[in-house]
Structure formats: C-alpha cells, structure tokens
Amino acid sequence: MLQNKDFSYQLYMVFQLALREYVGTLPFDELLEKKESITPFILEAVKASTEALGVEVSGFGIRDIILPGDVKEIMNQVLIAEKKAQANIIMRREETASTRSLLNTARLMEENAMLWKLKEMEYVEKIADKISNISVNGNGVLIDQLKQILVSQK
C-alpha cells in the first residue's frame, strides 16, 4: 500500500473487471436469480490481484443491482404485462365458474317446474323492490293477466 498511492482506484478496477466478467456470462433473468452466488465468484476472482496490491479482501456482497433507465423501463413493462396476464387468467376462471353455475341452475330449473316458479317469483320480488307505486287502470282484464303470470296453471 505504501508503494502504490492509488491502490483504492486499482482495487475498484479489479472488482469492476471481475463483476463484468461474471455479469457478461449470464442472461439478465439468470443474473437476477443468482444475485447471491456472485460473492464467492468475485472473492475468488479478485484474490490474486488484491494480494498484489497488498490488500486482503475478506468479505464482499452485492446490495442492489441498479439497472440503466431504459432497461428498468422495459422490466417495468414486462412486470405489468405479466400481472395483466395473471389477472386475465383469474378473470377467465371466474367467468368459467360463473357460466358453469348458470348452466347447472338452468338444468335444475328445466328438470323441476317448482324450482322454475320459485326463480320467477324471486325475479318478480326483485322487480317489486324497485317499484314504489303501481297504478292499474283498466276493465279487470289486467288483473286476470297478472294472475296468469303469477299463479301457476293446473
């Protein structure tokens, strides 16, 4: 260290070259997955060079991988696309389950007239909840028509 006044810059360069050697061999996704395995490789790669500088490196770690702006933007777009695809899959599953449920209900109603009538009454009740007034004008035929709709014929 006494013979080399610029040892910190040289140490920095040794680490930079070792990191670039490691990073250059991996695809981007694999690099992010193997972030923890960088440390042993770098320690071994810089060992001889740092000893020549009179420095012993006993530990090393990667805190963050900082991406250039355009790569970060691309990664964000990929993440958004993946999340949209996942949401789309979930929505399709729910739609399929809902359609199956409707189909099962329709089959049951087709097989059971009483169930069909109960469902009709349920819908009439829902409609009636939304109506505040009913004004009936006519000569009694309207009442008979309502009876035909609401009362089952035998």
Summarize the structure.
By secondary structure, the protein is mostly helical.
Question: Could you characterize what this model shows?
Answer:
- With 154 residues, this protein is mainly α.
- The chain starts with 6 loop residues before the first helix and ends with a helix.
- It contains six helices and no strands.
- The mean pLDDT is 82.
- It folds into two domains: 7-66, no CATH class; 67-131.
- It has helices at residues 7-23, 28-33, 38-52, 69-111, 113-130, 141-150.
- 71% of the residues lie in helices and 0% in strands.
- The radius of gyration is 37 Å and the shape is rod-shaped.
- α1 (7-23) runs antiparallel to α3 and α4 crosses α5 (113-130).
Main traits of this protein?
single chain; mainly alpha; 154 residues
The SSE string, one letter per element, is: HHHHHH
Helix content: over 70%
Average pLDDT over all residues: 82
User: End-to-end distance, in Å?
Assistant: 107 Å
How much strand content do the residues show? under 5%
CA gyration radius, whole angstroms: 37 Å
Give the strand tally.
0
**Structure class:** mainly alpha
List the helices and strands and how they pair.
Blueprint: H1 7-23, H2 28-33, H3 38-52, H4 69-111, H5 113-130, H6 141-150
